[in-house]
Amino acid sequence: MFRNISMAMAVLSVSSIGILAQGGPKPSDPQIAHIAYTAGQIDIDNAEQALKISKNKDVRAFAENMVKDHTAVNKQALDLCKKLGVTPEDNDTSKSLAKGAAAKRAELAKLSGAEFDKAYIANEVAYHKTVNAALETTLIPSSSNAQLKGLLETGLKIFKGHQQHAENTASMVK
Questions:
Q1: What domains are defined for the chain?
Q2: What is the C-alpha to C-alpha distance for residues 145 and 156, in angstroms, rounded to an integer?
Q3: CA distance 15 to 71
Q4: Is 54 helix (H, G, I), strand (E, B) or coil?
Q5: How far apart, in Å, are the Cα atoms of 144 and each of 28, 29, 82, 148?
Q6: C-alpha Rg value of the chain to the nearest Å
Q7: What's the CA gap between 149 and 135, in Å, rounded?
Q8: Which of 47, 52, 71, 146 lies deepest, with the highest CB count within 10 Å?
């Protein structure tokens, strides 16, 4: 029962990306850059919270990987934007993502021990599934800049690995 509730809440926390992936208006490259950066920063913030709360070695290892990889990808994204002279544009999707993630972190902050670990990793599984779907169906196809599209495609490969890592970690967290 708890797992079903956690999964439902995780899905709700990323619903704006889900809506985007289901055919909302086509975002511009500056909006795509901001959405992608925001999604990465959310995962960094979530992982930093896990590192403060969790004592589980598998959850901590996963969180450390999220901080490292998403920090690197976000740096590449900002460097590319600077190179291209593009200013990432805040938009309804990135604002909704940030708001939903803050609410989810507040919810997770009330948990501890195995309860936190299960909820955090369930959120990570759902989050990566949703972000990966949005990258595949909306963000990559909507990007008109070849370099941005290439960075998103590289990010998708990394994030699919994150999803698998999250799923494996979820199976170990009891």
A1: 28-172 (1.20.1260.10)
A2: 16
A3: 23
A4: coil
A5: 8, 7, 17, 8
A6: 15
A7: 10
A8: 47
Instruction: For residue range 58-112, list pLDDT tens digits in order.
Output: 999 999 999 999 999 999 999 999 999 989 999 999 999 999 999 999 999 999 9
Q: Which tokens belong to 80?
A: 């590319």
Record the pTM.
0.86
For the record, the structure tokens of 1 come out as 């029962």
pLDDT digits (tens, 9 = 90+) for 42-56: 999 999 999 999 999
Quote the tokens at residue 83. Answer: 């190179």
Query: Do 174 and 132 contact (CB within 8 A), yes or no?
Result: no
CA-to-CA distance for 124 and 10, rounded, in angstroms?
Answer: 8
Name the residue type at position 155: G
Residue 9: pLDDT above 50? no
Packing angle, helices 92-109 and 2-13, rounded to 10:
150
